Structures are given as C-alpha cells and as structure tokens.
Amino acid sequence: MKNIKILTQEAISLLEALIETPSFSTEEDKTALLLENWFNQNEIPFKRENNNVWAFNMYFDKDKPTLLLNSHHDTVRPNQAYTNDPFKAIVRDGKLFGLGSNDAGGCLVSLLATFVHFYANETLPYNIVIVASAEEENSGKNGLNSVLKHLPELDCAIVGEPTLMQLAIAEKGLLVLDVKVKGTPSHAAHQNEDNAIYKTITVMEWFKNYNFTKISEQLGPVKMTVTQINAGKQHNVVPSECDLVVDIRVNDCYSNPEILEVVKEHVDAEVTPRSMHLNASSIPAAHELVQAGIALGRTTYGSPTLSDQSVLSCKSLKLGPGDTLRSHSADEFIYVDEIEEGIQLYIKILGDFLKQ
C-alpha cells in the first residue's frame, strides 16, 4: 500500500496534468489517456468506453455489495474574465489555479488516490468501483449514465463534487421545459384578442407564483424559473406563438414526471421536456456512510446544484474538496491543502464505513 503522502503528491501532479489538457464535454479523449496512464502506473486494470474510464478493486466479489466512487474529468469552457491562462496549472499562495481544478479535478484525483489506497485490500466488505466520467457538464448521453450498464448493481455511491468536504445528503433534480404558447397571427394595426405574447403573460405568472406543497427537509421547495423568452420577427406582425424555456429545480419529494403532470394541468400551452432523467437524489442521514462522515465532524446539507448523482438510482452522497462557489468562475482554483485534507477524509470516512 502506498504511503498517503506519496499518493497525495501523485494526485496533485495528475491534477496539474489534467488542467493543462483541454477536456471540454465530449472532447475528453486526451484526459482519458492521462487517466489510463494513472491506472497503468499503479498496475490497476481498467476499462474504457468513449471517454469514461473505470476500474474495480483487486478482490472483486460478485456476492458482495458495491460502492461507487465517481467524479468527472470534463470541464466547461473558460469564461472571458480569466486573467490567468486557464490551461496552465499555477500554484500561488497555496492555491492551484486552472480550469477544472475545483470542478471537479480536485475531487477526481482525491478519489483516485483513495481508490488506490483501498485497491488491494483483501477483506473489504464492499466491492469498490471508481468511474472517471465524461460529459457531466453537459449532461451528455456518453457520460456516467452510459457506463452504468457495465457495472454491477450499486448499493451506494460517493459522487465527488466540491462541497468543502461537507456531506451533501440530497441534491435537487433538473427539469428543463420548452413551453410554446400559441395564438392567432395578425397585423399589429388590427385588434387581436388571441395575441400569443399577451397569453404568455398569464403562463409566466403561473410559473412565478405556483407553489408545490411538499417541502423537502434538506432541499426546500421546488423552484421554477422562466429563463428565456422568444417571439416575433418584426414590429408590425403579431406572432403566432411565443416560446419560453423554464428551469425547474426538483426536490426529493417529487419525481420529474409528477412535476411535468402538474405543469401540463395548469398551463395553456404546449409543454415539452428536454429530458426526464435528471432526478433529485438523496441518502438518509442515518446511513452508515453519512454517519461515518458525521463522526469526523462533517455537517449535512442539501445541494441545489446538479451532478452525476442525477443518473444514479442508488443512495448517493455528494462529497469533495473545493468550494462550489468557485465552479465555472474566472481564475478557478482549489487550495492544495484542500486536496490533502480531501484524500485524508475520504480515506477515514471509507475506512470507518467499511469496518461496519
């Protein structure tokens, strides 16, 4: 078993290499090669499909339950406010700067180091599988969701996202709706009681004011937000339709189909969901994995941001070094000591969990 200090140094070096290798969603082939090299250097057999790379612990036993460790190696594109080179790993004042350092490279390399730590343990009560997944940032079809068919039934999971190593025991799901309000087209000079834009005001008011009754203890209420509107092509023509995009953050009291049904019942418009699979997720506070974290002084909370938890049906915990407020920001960074702490805490939490 490698010394934790050596594992940490190797993890930070890997993160620096990941930062300096562009890996936008669907374009992660080069970082996937870096991950292959990591497994090869640690003499761990791995599998790859598209740009997803995964591996099982040495003594995998089909009769044991399985724990998933997961984080992603794709990134968003850098925003225009960067002052550093986003593809240059820069260490300054204890911070490691670079695109994807915080979201979610620090989490990924910390989980990889943790996996290596437990890899050759013969007495684990759980199998451990780690998946370094692609296409998380765009919820693509060739991400973690495409790997699940190759894995055994999962009993629980840790999804690595920046949580300051606190325990996100619930996460809101996402339902994006395209809403088309139809009316009667006409010349703007003529009276028209079926103006699609005016009808849209009523629809928008409903999305603004409607409250779903079930409030989650961890995630609070369902939140609906109109984020885009589009209608008309010229000043003197009343358009035949007005299009809206609605972003709905779903708590763990509802399924996406339940939310969609309520919307369709109340809204006089065509409503089309872009997808239905980005579900809310949660894990009971009493679960042994959560309790192992609480015993180490970690606190629990509900997360409003989406991750690969949304494609999992097992109980899942979001946990990782870094701060979600830095994600997608200019001059993104993670503190080096956050990675060091992350690896230590992952190992301690899993160690305590796997002893139970």
Brief characterization of the structure:
The protein has 356 residues and is of the alpha+beta class.
Give a structural overview.
It is a single chain. This protein is an alpha+beta fold. It has two domains: 244 residues, 3-Layer(aba) Sandwich (Aminopeptidase); 101 residues, Alpha-Beta Plaits, CATH 3.30.70.360. Strands 1-2-6-3-7-17 form a six-stranded mixed β-sheet, covered by helices on one side. Strand 1 and strand 2 form a beta hairpin. The radius of gyration is 23 Å and the shape is elongated. The mean pLDDT is 96.
The run of helices and strands is: HHEEEEEHEHEEEEHEEEHEEHEEEH
Kindly name the structural category.
Answer: alpha+beta
Which CATH-level-2 architecture of the largest domain? 3-Layer(aba) Sandwich
CATH homologous superfamily identity of the largest domain: Zn peptidases
| CATH C-level name of the largest domain | Alpha Beta
Number of strands: 18
What form results from the Cα inertia axes? elongated
The largest beta-sheet arranges its strands as: 1-2-6-3-7-17
Secondary-structure blueprint of this entry?
Layout: H1 4-19, H2 29-41, E1 47-49, E2 52-56, E3 66-72, E4 90-92, E5 95-97, H3 101-119, E6 127-133, H4 144-147, E7 156-159, E8 167-171, E9 173-182, E10 186-187, H5 196-209, E11 223-231, E12 237-238, E13 241-250, H6 256-266, E14 270-273, E15 281-282, H7 288-294, E16 300-303, E17 315-318, E18 333-335, H8 336-355
Helix pairs in contact: 1-3, 1-8, 3-8, 7-8
